[in-house]
Each structure stands twice: as C-alpha cells, then as structure tokens.
Amino acid sequence: MRTTFTIIILALSSLKLLAQTNNSPYSILGIGDIEDSYFNRTSGMANTGIAYRSGRYLINNNPASFSALDDGFFAGEVGGKAKLVNYYGSNVSVSDNQSFDITFRKLVFGIKAARHWGTSVGIVPFSSQNYEFNSPLLIGGTNGESVNQYFNGSGGLNKVYWANSYEFFKHLSLGVSASYLFGSLQQKIILQNTSTLGEYVSTTNTAGLSNFYLDYGMQLHGKISKKLDYAIGATFANKTSLNVDLSQTVLNADSVTLYQSTFPSGKFSLPVSYGAGLAITYNKKYTFLADYRRQDWSSVKSSEYVNSIFNVGGYNYYLQNSERFSAGFEISKQRVVSMGQFNALVELMYFQGGFYYNNTYLNVFGQRIRDIGGTIGIGVNSKRTPLSYTLSLQYGIKGVQSIQLIQERYAAMTIAISYRDFWLTKGRKFF
Prior knowledge:
There is one protein chain. The protein is mainly β. A hairpin with an 8-residue loop joins strand 20 and strand 21. The chain contains two helices and 21 strands. Helices cover 4% and strands 62% of the residues. A 14-stranded antiparallel beta barrel has the order 2-3-4-6-7-8-9-13-14-17-18-19-20-21. The protein has one domain: Porin, CATH 2.40.160.60.
C-alpha cells in the first residue's frame, strides 16, 4: 500500500503539465487570488471546518484540530483540483471566453505523536496569480497612432507548515502552525504592432516574496446531551511583513537585453486575520457547521513602490477588508463492527453539502468583488485498504458583468486521497 500511495502522489503531481492554466483577471491586484480551499474532507461543505474535528482525516482549517487524530496512527493526504471557468463582460471575446485547468494542490502528513498531542507537516497553496489581456497604447507625438500592450501575469505563493496541537482537560485543544511562505509573481508587458502583433519590446517584472508566518487555533468541544455533541473553534494570525525582492528585465524583439536591474528590498504586509466556527453533531451521524473568516486589508500599508508593484491601490481600485461566511452539513453512514471482545462504530461513507458567500479583498470601479457559490461532496472509506477518497463538486460566480468588470462563472471538482496506517505500534490491523 505504501507503493500505491507513492504512485498516487506522482500521478497527481504531473497533472499540472496536462492542462492550460485558468485565467483569473482579478488576480492582477494584490498578491493574487488568496486560496480559501483546503482540499480535504471539508471541501464538500464549502470548506467549512474551523470547529471540525476528525480522528482519521487531516483538517488544515484549524491547527487545533490535529489533537483529534486517532492514537497510534499516521496519515497522509494528497489533493487535486479541476476547474472550468467561463468569462462574461463587454470586453470579453465571445469566441474565447473559457479556460480549463487541472492542478495538484496539496501534500500533507500527520501523526498522533503522544496521547494528547497531534502534529502535521505539509505544503499547500497560499495565493495564485494568472492573467492576460490586451490594451491599446497611444504613441506620443503621432496622429493617433497606437501599439498593442499585451499583459501577462503568473506565479503565486506556497505555504510549507508544521502544525502542533495539544488537548487539555479532554475538552480544550490549542494549536499553532509555523509556516514559511515563499514564491514569486511575474508580470510581462509586451509592446506589439497593432496589425501584425509583431513584438517591439518586452518588460518583465519579477517579485520574489518570502517570510515566516504564524497562525493559531483553538477548539472547545464536548456534549450537550447523550446524542448531541458540540465544538467551537477560533483561528488567529497576526500581521506579517513579507520580504520583497524585485528585478526588471527589458528585451528587444531579438531577445537582446536592453536593460536589467534589481531594486532595493521592500516589504508587503499580510493583515491580521481571524475566524470563528461552530459544529453541532447529532447521534454521531448528522453534523451542521458554520464559519466566519475575516482579513483586515484596509489597515495594510507598504512602501510606495511595493504598492505599485502589487497594485494595492490606484485609479478606481483598492484593497479592503475581506469577509467569508460559509455553512455546511454532513451525513455519515456507519455500522457497528465486531472486533474480537468489543464492538466498534465504523464509518463507511459520508455525504456533504455547503454554501459560501465571500466578500473578497478587492474593490474595483466602486464594486466589491464577491464570490458566491455552493458545494456537494461524497467520501468513501475503503474496507480492505488504508485508503479513503473524498470527491466534491463546486459551482460559483465571482464578480459582475459591466462595461468595466468581468464576471467569472466556474465549476470545479476536488479530489482528496487519504492514506492511514499504524505508526510505531504492535497493534493488530482491522480493515
């Protein structure tokens, strides 16, 4: 089975090479589209899970959740996503208004290191940028002559983390995740002949970002009655400054370097962020969850040239506080299995649904860019192997249609594969 899990990782890692990348027009602002998906068991519940606890699955939504892992086991998970996007707006080409992408999104591991201590390590996405568009540029001193400006942006930030949580008094779990954020954002601007699209000159700006990042979590859980369980969760991350290293390269049509330079290091600030969640479970089978997350982007201030690189604020656009509301439910199908001298409740599969309403951190032409949608999901725990599978479908609408703005209507499929086995124990296996 360990060989099987390795093959799955390699297969998912190669998916990025098999498809084009989704165009995301609004990712030109800030550090791109900030990832609000976790690609785990909560994906089918609109990624609602600040208060969610699981003994089998790695719940990255809150670092305090890892103390719930079953004793004596280790777990590994990989996740991937396929996404289809249609674009609508006055300036969108009717014949070229769609993009499709398949990407590998996460690789995480976790163990129950001690009776009350759970720990996890992994790599997950933090933000992504990908856009391209054309815009005319008038040539000064001419009689209305112009060239075409082709803009292309790519890149993103990744998060390598080590999270630990400890359970106190059987009801309170506290966690901390120590991460390293790293990546680069690249913008290319090419001046082209309007008729032939022949290249005159190109400018490439590359910004490398990195720094350590800490976020904290808490979960309080217990029983309301014999059949009713509750969990309350909270998360917090303080303001963090990312180190920014900027370089610029200008090439002529023959790729001869006309100008190349690096600039003084700067800072780009990530805001204070926090969230709260609630989970209510009836009879160990039916769970309802609700989350609220917020990031205080309006208080973020960076140096002037860094602001211009990341388009933090300018004519008819600026960053503002973001808020995300989500709710989800889960139905777990279980059965009692005899294991020698005792009986155990074993989960066979589960069904999920969810809804989210996201006020993003972008305001463009007086319009807050909103992202609204829903999810459904299903999960299966293999009876004969240590593997589990989670599949979720998502549909959402981002932005509005107008003369200045573009609306994205997207459908996505997320798959997460989990592997679990005994860790440093002589215990017997039951599958």
